[in-house]
Amino acid sequence: MNRTASLPLPPLAVALLVLVALLAAGCGGSDGDLATVRGTVTLDGEPLAGARVEFDPVPEAKVRGKSTGSASCGITDSRGRYTLQYTPEQEGALVGKHVVRITTRSMTVDADGKEVLVPERLPPKFHLDSDVTRDVTPGSNTFDFPLSLEASSDAPQ
Known about the structure:
Blueprint: H1 11-25, E1 34-43, E2 46-47, E3 52-57, E4 62-63, E5 66-67, E6 72-75, E7 81-83, E8 93-94, E9 96-103, E10 106-109, E11 115-118, E12 133-136, E13 140-142, E14 145-147
Parallel strand pairs: 1-13, 1-14
Antiparallel strand pairs: 1-2, 1-7, 1-8, 3-6, 3-9, 4-5, 9-12, 10-11
């Protein structure tokens, strides 16, 4: 007779196996959820060079208080053009609704090799207090941001 005995797994072992299976399957956004995002940022009609454009998934896109994916960002070139990167190797942003933040604050290195803070040129309504949102859809997206420092202007449309 060929009998195989089957021993029940302890609850901790079952839970560990389930956790390993979930981690192996992955969670959050995948490459298939990314879309191309590019555009131009101007300040009072002139290209805004060296600005950081960040698309951060909105709270509705969070699961159990954690984002389902990372923010995407890009730096504007001398003509104010940007292209978002999800990771250093992956271009794009997650499909869905994002809060958009634009800042000019950064760090640079001077001639002596010391880090120097480049001060912010934009008011908080464009970065810290931003309520600007954009819906990233599958495929290619173009979002231009014509910013203005005039008191009468609000956040970009």
